[in-house]
């Protein structure tokens, strides 16, 4: 269990998430992430020179990816200091790993204050070619980063949705159950929009994006959320023959970014928007499920995080998950004794999309705000990632 790593209250933000090929499609995610984080730091009166280290979580290649972490760090501090950095790629658990790496180093005293910046752009994904000099005629091998990797894990040999269907068959999950969970998540998301988006405005910060060569706009709200009804879901056909997931019961690629300050208890109190609210990073869990069963992985990761924190499911005030497919939460609820309708208040990535790198970060920001609303307590974040892996984290809000 970690004892020395804290997050200042409101020492985090997430941008809205934008649909594939939407408003954020034209900006290099490295630049957009760094400039958005810098604007957020300025608005919050945070001095970026307090950071001793930075983690850049990014999973989809952008121009100048080779220098992405050092470049983003330099933009963040605008040359005011020499800020070292590290690039992290762990698909949809990238944010969790960045926060955990920062927390670990604070725990052992490597440094005092770190910034975790996570950014991705699924839109306009790169199309790469690889030399194949011994191939017929020396023709190149090509790769479309987004669709080729969504459609085939080179180890499991299956599409991501097929791994979800494998779990659904093993669990005996029905189409009706998947639709019911999807509708429930959409209804929970509506709570985040109530009172002029009061909940989202607690943590959300608008990026400034280019919509043309001469025009830039602020993105204030999520883009790409599909209005959902029971009747509409029932009309959709399964994506895979004989499957239980429609396009309504799975998430969609998106663009966005988020950032977290991770520091010591004293520094967190100094930086906090309310020094009476304390947010502690308690533990981290990890796992890898059997080949081709990605949706199983969050359960053992969650169990590991709970055990390390010395807590059980009964101690939790709130649970947030990255849920790319409806069966993820159905499996987790069944295996861990959690009410599937209680978890993921205010919605989750099933509804507003997943830009991969910042996906977990936004969910964690929502988890922390929900715990504050509830008067404090323990919260669990968990989610799967490409390659049948998963991560989980326990936070305490006091």
What attributes does this structure have?
single chain, about 400 residues, alpha+beta, Peroxisomal Thiolase, Chain A, domain 1, about 35% helix
What is the share of helical residues?
25-40%
CATH superfamily of the domain at 160-202 and 281-397: Thiolase/Chalcone synthase
Mean pLDDT: 97
Structural class: alpha+beta
Helix/strand order, N-terminal first: EEEHEHEHEEEHHHEEHEHEHEHHHEE
The overall strand count is 15
Main beta-sheet annotation? 6 strands, mixed
Q: What's the helix count?
A: 12
Beta-strand fraction estimate: 15-25%
CA-CA gap between termini: 17 Å
CATH class of the domain at 160-202 and 281-397: Alpha Beta
Low-confidence stretches: none
Q: Output the radius of gyration.
A: 20 Å
> What is the name of the CATH architecture of the domain at 160-202 and 281-397?
3-Layer(aba) Sandwich
